[in-house]
Amino acid sequence: MILRVLTLSLLVLYPVAWFAPLMRAGLLPLFELSEISVITGLQSLWKSDVILALIVTAFALFAPYLKTIGTALVQWDLLDARAMPVLHVLGKLAMADVFLIALYITVVKGIGVGRLETAWGLYLFTACILASILFGMLTEKSGLNRKARSDT
Question: Is the pTM of this model over 0.90?
Answer without folding.
Answer: no
